[in-house]
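Long-time lurker. I teach an intro course on protein structure, and each term I like to show students one example going from raw sequence to a predicted 3D structure in token notation. This year I'd like something fresh instead of my usual example. Would anyone be willing to generate the tokens for the chain below so I can use it in lecture? Attribution to the forum is fine with me.
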Amino acid sequence: MIARAAALAALAAAGVLLATGAAAADAPATPVANDPLPEATPCPADLPARTRCWAGRDALGAWIRIAMPDNWNGVAVIHAHGGPELGAPRDARVLEDLERWKVMLKAGYLWAGTSYHQGGVAVLSAADDLDRLRRIVERIAGKPRRVIAHGQSWGASVAARAAEQPGRWDGVLLTSGVLGGGTQSYDFRLDLRVVYQALCRNHPAPDEAAYPLWQGLPPRATLTRTELARRVDACTGIHHRVAERTPEQQRRLDSILRVIRIREPSLEGHLSWATFEFRDIASRLGGGNAFGNEGVRYTGSDDDEALNRTVARYRRDPAAAAAFAADTDPTGRIDAPVLTLHAIDDPTAFVELESTFRDTMAAAGRADRLVQTYTDEHAHSYLADPEYVAAMGALLDWIDHGDKPTPASVAARCRAAEPAFGGGCALRPDYVPAPLASRVPPR
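-- Reply from a regular --
Happy to contribute to a lecture. Here you go:
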């Protein structure tokens, strides 16, 4: 709380306002009695037979879905989805998550998800929405035997921040997590913007007004994702077969991918994030800049000297960075057991972010509350069903019996789960991620 207060004081001194997040963290949550209860609704057809479902909106307008299997074991999984999405909350997003995570129902767990009551990069606000959903579940189903916060992708940071509130969660499962906090997880996307612009010079285009690239877009810019995709293709030929690209397009594409260390299918997604979500971040920071690249040397292009002379350089504003950290950076002060699951070749959330989170937990004196597991997969949004079943089972045995898992014991559980939940176990008990600085230049 001292660090957060200092960050907010810095904001006040600089005249910077974070619209949600840090300021919302210490405000009392909306009383759960004010939340309307969701109503019984038909379940999606592909959920386990005799599952009961509820749908509705909470007092702040977040869409919520709750599903209870016929064989409920008393454990509630409260799901924090990734993204984040921009714009108004959507019920369709929560329904999509329910169908994606139906393995939790098959394994006997109650599942509940929220759209969050607002879009955009507001971690503590979303964490409050997650806790509100936990309390609504208790009104629908009664007090669960155990309550697990499950965060996926960006939602892992939401669940990690929610779990810093003591006594509310029995355990935490973080999968494919963006766990370096906003101040470290997104630096490579600023790098992508400046490297892309140095090589492509079309975002912004020469006939458009210049703006600092950390801003994502100017507040009233009308650029669409479709137009951004067209510009990326014009520069790199990414929407065409290799044989149809010009040598210059292939040269630029190869340089971008090598410098930023991402794969070709991920380029547009990361550039879109560094455009539209960066605009959201700058807006929430009152126009302040939370990102910088002073002193970074970019390597891997076909002409590193020319690239480093050309790229735009930015200095992060300390007050804006402090505000962003207060909202998005996990503190590691989690007393409940935490288990993470991450693909080694995750194309969206680099596995090296787990190294940062491990250091965060250790610095908070909670290293003994963390077990990290890794799979030899090339995916982000969803891994193999038996891996999630094994992770949940191991986490619950840790909570219930003090049987702290190891990566090897989780791998053994996964193999044992394959007959009932399908194949796909690819856990690598021996894997330890390198520091984030080995992949993203420090600054």
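Some talking points for your students: The radius of gyration is 22 Å. Confidence is low (pLDDT under 50) at residues 1-29.
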